[in-house]
Task: inverse folding
């Protein structure tokens, strides 16, 4: 057993790591996620988690790690990490981090065919992203919900979400993401056409 002095020293060391090192590691991991450098992001997130004790930063790092697992098609690992992050949800530092958590869950559920669960989590992400005021995040999850609703056969609702995403990206002059929304709209049109043939 450790005495009070050694225990105090350990806590002091963890605090120093939190202040001086891991925020950079969390930012590094997020940068890798945004660039879709999944393996590098996973490495950065694991490095931070090995050092970090602050629950808010651990929540961020777990979210980044889950995103990297998802990008590497490690869906079961991503879900396990998100379950661990859920235990720290009350420590989430901001609305974006909360939105990221639910968006990641939506992605995992979408990728594993659990569409109803994906819809629920994406809508929760939309709520938190809307509170951030960051329109690009909101548009991204609107597009995701549109894709889920297409797969669920709720075509009018799917179109509504996709047109809302299109409008935001058009306002932002974001042509790259507009192309993604147009692809989603084409998938919706193709699905509608297929259903019409089947019913004729």
Result:
């Amino acid at each position: 057993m450790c005495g009070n002095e050694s225990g105090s020293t350990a806590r002091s060391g963890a605090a120093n790591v939190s202040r001086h090192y891991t925020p950079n590691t969390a930012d590094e991991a997020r940068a890798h996620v945004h660039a879709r450098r999944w393996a590098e992001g996973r490495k950065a997130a694991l490095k931070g988690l090995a050092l970090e004790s602050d629950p808010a930063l651990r929540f961020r790092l777990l979210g980044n790690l889950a995103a990297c697992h998802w990008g590497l098609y490690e869906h079961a690992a991503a879900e396990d990490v998100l379950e661990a992050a859920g235990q720290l949800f009350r420590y989430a530092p901001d609305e974006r981090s909360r939105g990221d958590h639910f968006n990641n869950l939506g992605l995992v559920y979408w990728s594993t065919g659990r569409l109803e669960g994906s819809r629920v989590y994406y809508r929760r992400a939309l709520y938190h992203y809307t509170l951030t005021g960051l329109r690009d995040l909101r548009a991204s999850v609107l597009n995701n919900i549109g894709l889920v609703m297409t797969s669920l056969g709720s075509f009018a609702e799917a179109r509504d979400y996709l047109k809302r995403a299109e409008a935001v990206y058009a306002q932002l002059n974001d042509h790259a993401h507009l192309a993604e929304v147009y692809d989603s709209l084409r998938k919706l049109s193709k699905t509608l056409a297929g259903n019409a043939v089947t019913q004729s």
The radius of gyration is 20 Å. The chain has two domains: 1-93, 95-200. The domain at 95-200 is CATH 1.25.40.10 (Serine Threonine Protein Phosphatase 5, Tetratricopeptide repeat). Residues 75 and 112 are 8 Å apart (CA to CA).
